[in-house]
Amino acid sequence: PEGWSVEEAKSQLDVLRGFSYKGKGLVGSLDEGVPMHNLNSVLEGGGYKYAGLKFYSEEFKEKFAIQEGDVLVANTEQGHNHLLIGYGA
After folding, report:
1. For residue 38, what is the DSSP state?
2. Cystine design at 56: which of 10, 36, 67, 73 (Cβ 3.0–4.6 Å)?
3. pTM of the model
4. Angle 25-37-12 from CA coordinates, rounded to 5°
5. What is the DSSP string of 16-27?
6. 37: closest CA among 23, 51, 25?
7. SS percent in the chain: helix, strand, coil, step 5
8. How many CB atoms lie within 10 A of CB 34?
9. Over its length of 89 residues, how does the chain's per-residue pLDDT go in tens digits?
């Protein structure tokens, strides 16, 4: 559009990959830990799957805490169907 400039995405975005977590930090509920989004939180073809939410009780770096306005995108997956990669939650 008129008045817009063209820039590389990296000049406008901060891209972070998820962190590797320890299984011992996984707990059963919000009472025990904080919500942790993961591959199972992304629907095949895009969208958020609340049933995939996990809870985590161990320490993690603040940069991995989701903030308002953040966009979660799957950049890997366990299967070979490629129904998660590149889709947002």
Report:
1. -
2. 36
3. 0.69
4. 125
5. -PPPP--GGGEE
6. 51
7. 15, 15, 70
8. 14
9. 899 999 998 898 888 888 888 889 999 999 999 999 888 888 888 888 888 899 999 999 999 898 898 888 877 776 666 667 666 66
